């Protein structure tokens, strides 16, 4: 995916917002159709049937008919794709799109280009034997920094070529997605990026992700994800307070809310930027990248509980959750995997923080504090996070938890608390080979 900031003129922006609302309307109709489905009912209409219904709806409703047919049809296409990928994408069932939140639409290219197979031979129609022509988005380069793209109903819309390097080529794609978020327009070309080449040195790096240090590397480096400054956080609180006190439905309230949204978007942008730069660095400079396996969803599960059984330390836990999510752990792992496919491994997390990376001794007393590690066996001292990352690089968590059954040979006695993560008293001081 290559994404660029778009700079439409006011009239173009207005037209594109109309496209957004049409796409959202059509998508939500599709969601509604599919939400009526029950086990005993017929399956909801697929893409082809929905397209037929769209044509009818466009004839009956002047408002919908006045919009661009391609934009509306692509919304259905997006929906069909999301529906097909609901078990693999990680997003689940396609859900409602909201105004001001999910503003965007897809543009299909108007240019026709011959299609080729992976081996370079031209793709031919099996019936007629003619060359298959595919779609391509029309893009024009204006200067070193600027280019323009054709958007239906808007003519040429300029976007900034922010990719680095002199040979930054114009992206080629069949479709583009245009989004509007936090007052900014962006264009994303659907292209699969080329993976970063492995350095070929055979070097392995371990990464321990934490809250105090975002990513501790096994070579001793400590990388931190940039956060909002104290001043910016104070500004957020100020605008939230003003928004809360402004009269309901007033322009002032909306303005304060948008200020809050802009500041929060700034934080997210900083985090994303850091993740991109760090993952590129990792993919380019190491052959094998090992992360400790974290279940972030479980780690950030709410402590609220229910009304009958309220949880304990709820504000503390929600604060911790917020700071875990502010670290971009998942994004860093995901983007590294994209850039270095097949070169990323997950190491089981238990005991990585308690095992001595010098002698392999596992003892909870070795961990003196959050930052300090001093082995109780060999006296090795190190930063606790660096020590853990060296263990991760070695692919070592430690002794796995005792299993209730030892395969076919018999059973091991169940431990008293089988679900604890860190070692139990009777396990203290068992050295690894
Ligand atoms: Zn030791």
Break the fold down into its secondary structure elements and pairings:
Elements (H helix, E strand, L loop, with lengths): L1 E6 L2 H26 L11 H14 L1 H4 L3 H16 L18 E6 L2 E4 L18 E4 L2 E3 L4 E6 L3 E6 L14 E7 L2 E6 L14 E6 L5 E3 L4 E2 L6 H16 L5 H35 L2 E6 L2 H4 L14 H12 L3 H11 L4 E5 L23 E3 L6 E3 H10 L11 E2 L3 E2 L22
Parallel strand pairs: 10-13, 13-14
Antiparallel strand pairs: 1-7, 1-9, 2-8, 3-4, 5-6, 6-7, 8-9, 10-11, 11-12, 15-16, 17-18
Zinc ion binds next to loops.
Q: What coarse outline follows from CA principal-axis ratios?
A: globular
Tell me the series of helices and strands, N- to C-terminal. EHHHHEEEEEEEEEEEHHEHHHEEEHEE
Helix content: 25-40%
Q: Output the structural class.
A: alpha+beta
Determine the strand fraction and express it as a percent band.
15-25%
Biggest sheet, strands in spatial order? Answer: 2-8-9-1-7-6-5
- Total domain count: 3
Q: Provide mean pLDDT, rounded.
A: 83
Number of strands: 18
Low-confidence stretches: 399-421
Ligand catalogue: zinc ion
Largest sheet, if any? 7 strands, antiparallel
What Rg do the Cα atoms give?
Answer: 27 Å
N- to C-terminal distance: 46 Å
- Count the DSSP helices: 10
């Amino acid at each position: 995916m290559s994404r660029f900031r778009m700079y439409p003129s006011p009239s173009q922006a207005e037209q594109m917002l109309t496209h957004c609302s049409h796409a959202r309307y059509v998508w939500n109709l599709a969601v509604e159709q599919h939400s009526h489905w029950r086990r005993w009912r017929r399956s909801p209409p697929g893409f082809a049937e929905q397209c037929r219904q769209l044509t009818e709806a466009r004839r009956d409703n002047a408002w919908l008919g006045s919009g661009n047919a391609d934009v509306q049809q692509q919304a259905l296409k997006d929906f069909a794709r999301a529906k097909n990928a609901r078990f693999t994408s990680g997003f689940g069932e396609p859900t409602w799109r909201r105004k001001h939140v999910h503003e965007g639409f897809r543009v299909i290219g108007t240019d026709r280009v011959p299609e080729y197979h992976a081996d370079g031979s031209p793709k031919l129609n099996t019936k007629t034997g003619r060359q298959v022509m595919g779609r391509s988005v029309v893009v024009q380069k204006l200067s070193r920094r600027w280019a323009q793209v054709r958007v239906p109903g808007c003519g040429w819309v300029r976007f900034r070529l922010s990719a680095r390097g002199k040979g930054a080529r114009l992206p080629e794609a069949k479709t583009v997605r245009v989004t509007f978020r936090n007052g900014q327009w962006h264009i994303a070309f659907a292209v699969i990026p080329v993976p970063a080449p492995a350095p070929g040195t055979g070097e392995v790096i371990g990464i321990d992700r934490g809250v105090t240090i975002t990513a501790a590397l096994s070579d001793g480096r400590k990388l931190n994800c940039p956060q909002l400054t104290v001043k910016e956080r104070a500004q957020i609180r100020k605008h939230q307070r003003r928004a809360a006190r402004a009269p309901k439905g007033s322009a002032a309230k909306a303005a304060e809310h948008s200020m809050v949204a802009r500041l929060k978007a700034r934080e997210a942008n900083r985090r994303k930027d850091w993740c991109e730069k760090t993952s590129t660095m990792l993919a380019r400079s190491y052959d094998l990248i090992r992360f400790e396996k974290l279940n972030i969803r479980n780690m950030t599960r709410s402590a609220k509980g229910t009304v009958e059984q309220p949880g304990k330390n709820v504000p503390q836990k929600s604060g911790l959750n917020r700071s875990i999510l502010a670290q971009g752990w998942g994004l860093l792992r995901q983007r590294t995997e994209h850039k270095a496919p097949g070169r990323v491994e997950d190491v089981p997390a238990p005991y990585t923080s308690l095992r001595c990376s010098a002698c392999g001794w596992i003892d909870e007393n070795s961990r003196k504090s959050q930052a300090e590690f001093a082995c109780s066996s060999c006296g090795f001292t190190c930063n606790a996070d660096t020590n853990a990352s060296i263990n991760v690089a070695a692919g070592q968590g430690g002794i796995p938890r005792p299993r209730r059954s030892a395969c076919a040979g018999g059973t091991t006695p169940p431990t008293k608390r089988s679900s604890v993560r860190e070692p139990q008293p009777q396990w203290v001081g068992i050295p690894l080979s």
